[in-house]
């Protein structure tokens, strides 16, 4: 099944003292590298973050305007960067989940099996809603994120969609928020 992927990678990382999460490494790959590997089968991938991020040539790199205006604005920028004739489904991910490949597989499989009426699947892990681990119909996302998005809640904008929740594998959305969580997930070496 063809799908797009939008990876949000442009936050301030204030709890990491400003160290970009995307550049944290486990000695083998960065968080950005592990996230891009998880979506390597995407028809089109957009990373939303600083223009200095090292992305492969086939990945579109864009930035929300103004920078640091929140994940909803980042998703709107990512959607705007997708070609008009892009895949029918778009996966939304944050860059800071090193085990997200397991979630991606479950989400893409659910979308592939969905009927025409299904708008999308929002990830849930152990009862916790994961707004940046979901897959939705691209046109539905374009409508939901077409208005003002600066400093808006992703959850509130997604609330306009009649999506289903989908239980994701435990640990697949564990994220890096602090140096302690980075170390516990094995990503503590900043590379850029």
UniProtKB/TrEMBL annotation:
InterPro entries xrefs: MobA-like_NTP_Trfase, Nucleotide-diphossugar_trans
Keyword Transferase belongs to the record: yes
Start and end residues of each MobA-like NTP transferase domain: 5-160
A GO term, aspect molecular function: nucleotidyltransferase activity
Coiled-coil boundaries: none
UniProt entry tagged with the keyword Transferase: yes
Keywords tagged on the record: Transferase
Protein name from the UniProt record: MobA-like NTP transferase domain-containing protein
Source organism: Rothia aerolata
């Amino acid at each position: 099944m063809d799908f797009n992927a939008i990876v949000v990678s442009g936050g301030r990382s204030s709890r990491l003292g400003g160290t970009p999460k995307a550049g944290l490494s486990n000695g083998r790959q960065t968080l950005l590298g592990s996230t891009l590997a998880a979506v390597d089968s995407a028809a089109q991938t957009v990373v939303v973050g600083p223009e200095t991020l090292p992305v492969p040539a086939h990945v579109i790199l864009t930035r929300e305007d103004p920078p640091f205006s929140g994940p909803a604005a980042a998703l709107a920028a990512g959607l705007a960067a997708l070609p008009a004739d892009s895949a029918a489904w778009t996966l939304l991910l944050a860059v800071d989940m090193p085990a997200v490949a397991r979630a991606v597989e479950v989400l893409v499989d659910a979308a592939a099996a969905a009927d025409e009426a299904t708008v999308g699947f929002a990830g849930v892990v152990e009862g916790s809603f994961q707004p940046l681990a979901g897959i939705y119909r691209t046109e539905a996302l374009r409508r939901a994120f077409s208005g003002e998005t600066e400093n808006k809640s992703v959850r509130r904008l997604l609330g306009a969609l009649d999506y289903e929740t989908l239980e994701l594998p435990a640990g697949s959305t564990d994220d890096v928020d602090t140096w302690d969580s980075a170390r516990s997930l094995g990503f503590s070496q900043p590379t850029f």
